[in-house]
């Protein structure tokens, strides 16, 4: 083993009815995680994956401070079976429940798109978070057409939802365009993160609505106009756009996540 390396041992321990995962470093238990209802994949057959991940949502893209090359040395992998242990039957598979960003609520995402604008193709909703991700519903309170979309955020933690295109598209022709949309939010919501994302999951541009001035449309609605160049300046690459609109983390003046309904409508590029 190279002198600067650390030997890491991960033990996947099923106690009773496959109830927990235990991680160890050099034989010393470091952390135990209970297997909850949103971790059912560990109660079924699964495989091990070892890799060196470069870039991504958590660490961000590599920059001038990133050290290359990097190497991972694998001495051995051992898998043990406990004598006399009979695992419980695996839970039934529910794809909607166990798919990250899966369906929740009922709404037609095209209700939020400006009538006559077809630049996003076939679209659907997806979501993710730590319990603060919203459900989605149609709303008869609209500024364009008959319906808008309502995101119902439960509050208490971070989360967001977005429009995803069935087929990613090259938005390079929109490099000098603006993203426009109408928003209707409660007065206690002072901060919202808006994001556009590429298909490769290492390209995204995240901005905050409190840094932009809106136009009052009346009846609680406001219109935002944000240059696509601003998203590009924050890391978005336009050649393979997959998420043309996302709303994350509505917060109040104290930075808390309140339970709120946020309506949006008339999304388009121009």
Features:
single chain, 270 residues, Jelly Rolls, globular
Number of strands: 16
Give the full name of the CATH homologous superfamily of the largest domain: Galactose-binding lectin
Average pLDDT across residues?
A: 84
Q: Based on CA inertia axes, which overall geometry fits?
A: globular
CATH architecture of the largest domain: Sandwich
Strand content: 35-45%
Number of discrete domains:
2
Structural class: mainly beta
Task: List the secondary-structure elements in sequence, H or E.
Answer: EEEHEEEEEEEEEEHEEE
Q: Give the strand order of the largest sheet, numbering strands 1, 2, ... along the chain.
A: 4-6-7-16-9-13-12
Largest sheet: 7 strands, mixed
Rg from alpha-carbon coordinates: 22 Å
CATH-assigned fold name of the largest domain: Jelly Rolls
């Amino acid at each position: 083993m190279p002198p600067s390396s650390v030997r890491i041992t991960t033990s996947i321990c099923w106690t009773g009815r496959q109830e927990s995962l235990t991680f160890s470093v050099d034989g010393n238990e470091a952390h135990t995680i209970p297997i909850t209802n949103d971790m059912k994949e560990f109660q079924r057959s699964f495989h091990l994956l070892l890799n060196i991940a470069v870039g991504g949502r958590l660490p961000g893209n590599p920059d001038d401070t990133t050290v290359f090359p990097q190497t991972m040395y694998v001495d051995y992998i051992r898998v043990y079976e406990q004598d006399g242990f009979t695992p419980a039957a695996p839970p039934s598979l529910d794809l909607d429940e166990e798919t990250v960003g899966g369906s929740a609520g009922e709404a037609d995402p095209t209700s939020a798109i400006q009538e006559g604008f077809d630049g996003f193709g076939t679209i659907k909703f997806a979501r993710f978070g730590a319990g603060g991700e919203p459900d989605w519903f149609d709303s008869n309170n609209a500024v364009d057409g008959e319906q808008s979309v309502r995101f119902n955020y439960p509050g208490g933690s971070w989360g967001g939802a977005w429009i995803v295109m069935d087929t990613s598209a090259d938005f390079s022709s929109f490099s000098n365009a603006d993203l426009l949309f109408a928003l209707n939010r409660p007065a206690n919501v002072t901060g919202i993160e808006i994001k556009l994302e590429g298909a490769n999951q290492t390209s995204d541009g995240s901005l905050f609505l409190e840094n932009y001035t809106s136009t009052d449309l009346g009846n609680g609605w406001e219109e935002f106009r944000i240059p696509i160049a601003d998203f590009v300046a924050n890391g978005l690459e336009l050649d393979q756009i997959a998420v043309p609109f996302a709303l994350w983390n509505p917060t109040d003046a104290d930075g808390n996540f309140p339970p709120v309904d946020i309506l949006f409508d008339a999304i388009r590029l121009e």
